[in-house]
Design brief:
Number of domains of chain A: 2
Distance between the termini of chain A: 34 Å
Radius of gyration of chain B: 27 Å
Largest sheet of chain B: none
CATH architecture of the largest domain in chain A: 3-Layer(aba) Sandwich
Largest sheet of chain A: 8 strands, mixed
Shape of chain A: globular
Oligomer: heterodimer
Number of strands of chain B: 0
Distance between the termini of chain B: 61 Å
Helix content of chain B: over 70%
CATH superfamily of the largest domain in chain A: Periplasmic binding protein-like II
Helix content of chain A: 25-40%
Strand content of chain B: under 5%
Structural class of chain B: mainly alpha
CATH topology of chain B: MetI-like fold
Number of domains of chain B: 1
Order of helices and strands of chain B: HHHHHHHHHHHHHHHH
Number of helices of chain A: 14
CATH topology of the largest domain in chain A: D-Maltodextrin-Binding Protein, domain 2
Structural class of chain A: alpha+beta
């Protein structure tokens, strides 16, 4: 504050006044923000199917609620189109589906819970599907309620909250999505992406906004013999890609990959494979797992603490974690978390198994702690390290 | 009663004086002011308030202080540069076009065609606009396909995906906006003034210098301010063209990234940045009003 020609006493008076004014302002309920402003959530319901009185009484209770609000479930992501159809049209047609903001981000899902806390309307999401880092955080903010599905014990311990507040749902493996018709050669490993013949051909989404893209930058740190503990290696790799002009300063779109304008991207294999299937005959899309290793990324499901339709929400979870629901994800190439259990019991149809590409490379599964530090590091430094390379 | 007779022949005047009392005149303002309060002032106040308090409700300057980090100042510098460049480019080209279709005496058909086009193109933005430019200037775009036989290739990373791409694409909607804003002003430049100046022996240059520009100046300044703010606040086009890298070139993309994210946002920074944009826009309006007053001095 030095250099301001103002008498110190006067300044203190003024700032005290200003602070007092701001305090009053800040305490106004309409203007206040943060979890302190949220109404207390209703008490949590039954913790599992047994406490809920079995499947029949859960279905009866859900039928009474009559609807379910989901959010951020895109039709073209992990076969959600099929999952929504089977659940709402075939199995439980008495449930009206409020398909809120299919393209919302995880942060927006959390904001929706906060903004609608206490609201009983259809715009209040009952269930969420968010990036892995959001589970613990939303639990700490009291935005979730616990529930343990009937198949709870077969969900790997590392990717579920022990108290049942959130649970991993499916995972993907980071892969190269390449329009083979439009490239001089199909890159097979991280270093291939630096080839000068691929100048102007690689486009990804914003690593500070999309969890998928933060993961892809992180995955590239495995390319030079680095580890997941070294996200800085991933950033250095992308800085190099940007400097060479191979990484284009724009975002990925399925259309530009298919047209050949930007024929290379990096995405979860389930998204890349779905795009391949959708454009069969239009473009020869190849999905490549980089030879020197890649990583897997998990999303998770949770029920909102403020869910106005908690029984329908629990029914949705029971469906997603049943063999039937898990196989629907697998149809969309997303590996469901109970994959190994189902494989052991031989309930995965052979045709479905044969469709899956062989990921014959080393795939690393980061821990929650690694995900938090790795993604935070990339988010904090992406613009400083890579974005700035595009300075005019 | 003799006195009563004449007054009966005149129909009684109805008294509307209550309608003319000043308190009723204000009634017309109420819906508009309510609208402004609910959709402009209140959200604006919430933005400022949230930029000053952390999630626990304590007063803090940390979000405003974090605006000084290099990435933010770079975004601001680039954003302001793009806004000035496209306000000048769009303003110049748009003024010339406006001149041509109003005072220039082009056929009426061209004039109405340009005006209809301007009405549509001024609102053309976001993904469709970027798609059109990618189809034209992209790596495998039309222009490059035409130029290929000549052995020439335009590098889209210079002309499309970056700072200059942003300038080119913004200019596309800045030109028609200029036309829409300036046509009434140019039409107000009366033919008689020109004739009077010529009769008094003024050259064309002298007419423009001493009559045309002074009359148009307030409108030109207004158009420039509008174009500047229009470019500064553009989000959809910037993010559609540059994706995440847009946050190096457009402050709006940085703001959005604090809220639209799967990983870690910093809403406090987002609110502070949004509030700082309100300040910049307010400052632009202030500069505009001062310069307008200066430009209108001759009228007094």
């Amino acid at each position: 504050m030095s250099g301001i020609p103002m008498n110190r006493r006067r300044f203190l008076q003024l700032s005290a006044l200003a602070n007092a004014g701001l305090m009053v302002w800040g305490s106004h309920p309409l203007l206040a923000q943060g979890s302190s402003a949220l109404p207390p959530p209703p008490p949590p319901g039954p913790i599992d199917l047994k406490a809920a009185g079995g499947m029949d009484s859960l279905i009866a209770a859900a039928r009474k609620e009559g609807e379910l609000s989901t959010t951020a479930l895109p039709d073209d992501w992990a076969n959600y189109k099929g999952i929504k159809r089977v659940f709402f049209k075939e199995k439980y047609p008495f449930l009206k589906h409020n398909d809120l903001t299919p393209d919302a981000s995880s942060a927006e899902e959390i904001e929706q819970i906060k903004a609608n806390a206490g609201n009983k309307g259809p715009q209040n999401p009952d269930v969420i599907d968010v990036g892995f880092v959001w589970g613990a955080r939303a639990k700490a903010e009291n935005l979730l309620q616990p529930y343990k599905v009937a198949t709870w014990d077969t969900i790997p311990t590392a990717i579920k909250d022990p108290d049942g507040f959130w649970y991993g749902d499916y995972y993907g493996t980071m892969s190269f999505e390449v329009n083979a018709d439009a490239v001089p050669f199909v890159p097979q490993d991280w270093q291939d992406l630096l080839d000068p013949r691929l100048k102007g051909m690689i486009a990804i989404n914003d690593p500070t906004a999309s969890s998928q893209s933060t993961h892809l930058v992180w995955a590239s740190s495995l390319g030079n013999g680095g580890t997941l503990a070294q996200p800085e290696k991933g950033l250095a790799f992308f800085k190099e890609l940007a400097k060479k002009g191979n990484l284009v300063a724009t975002s990925y779109s399925p259309a530009s990959l298919v047209s050949g304008e930007l024929p290379i991207s990096l995405r979860w294999d389930y998204n890349a494979l779905a795009n391949r299937d959708n454009n069969m005959g239009k473009a020869k899309i190849q999905v490549v797992y980089p030879k020197s290793g890649t990583l897997a990324g998990v999303y998770l499901q949770a029920i909102s603490a403020y869910a106005p339709r908690p029984h329908a929400a629990r029914l949705w979870m029971e469906f997603l974690y049943s063999d039937e629901g898990q196989l629907l994800w697998l149809e969309g190439y997303a590996k469901p978390v109970r994959f190994n259990d189902m494989l052991k019991r031989g309930v995965i149809p052979k045709a479905l198994l044969d469709r899956l590409p062989a990921a014959d490379v080393k795939v690393e599964f980061p821990t929650l702690e690694q995900v938090q530090t790795g993604l935070q590091y990339i988010r904090d430094n992406w613009v400083k390290e890579v974005g700035i390379t595009y300075k005019s | 009663m003799a006195l009563a007779t004449p007054s009966q022949s005149v129909p009684p005047r109805r008294n509307f004086s209550w309608l003319h009392s000043p308190s009723w005149d204000w009634l017309g303002l109420v819906p508009f002011l309510t609208f402004i309060a609910v959709f402009l002032l209140f959200p604006g106040l919430v933005i400022v308030q949230r930029s000053l308090f952390d999630s626990e409700g304590r007063l803090t300057w940390q979000y405003w202080q974090s605006l000084s980090q290099a990435a933010i100042t770079l975004a601001y510098t680039n954003s302001l540069q793009v806004s000035v460049i496209t306000a000048v480019s769009g303003g110049l080209i748009g003024s010339m076009l406006t001149w041509a279709i109003t005072l220039g005496g082009l056929p009426a058909g061209i004039r109405s065609a340009v005006l209809s086009f301007a009405g549509v193109a001024a609102n053309f933005s976001g993904i469709p606009l970027v798609f059109a430019f990618v189809a034209l200037l992209g790596r495998i775009g039309l222009l490059n396909q035409w130029l290929r036989p000549l052995g020439v290739a335009l590098d889209p990373q210079v002309f499309l995906y970056g700072f200059w791409g942003l300038c080119i694409v913004y200019t596309y909607f800045q030109i028609p906006l200029t036309v829409l804003v300036l046509v009434p002003a140019f039409q107000g430049l009366r033919r008689e003034w020109r004739e009077a100046a010529e009769n008094l022996g003024a050259t064309s240059t002298q007419f423009w210098l001493y009559v045309g520009l002074p009359v148009l100046m307030p409108s030109l300044l207004g158009a420039f301010a509008l174009l500047f703010v229009n470019a500064l606040s553009t989000y959809a086009t910037a993010v559609a063209l540059l994706g995440g890298v847009g946050q190096v070139f457009a402050v709006t993309v940085v703001v959005a990234n604090q809220f639209r994210t799967d990983t870690f946002g910093d809403p406090g920074l987002g609110y502070a940045l949004a509030a700082s944009m309100i300040l910049v826009i307010g400052a632009t309006i202030a500069v505009y009003m001062v310069s307008r007053r200066w430009a209108e001095q001759w009228r007094r």
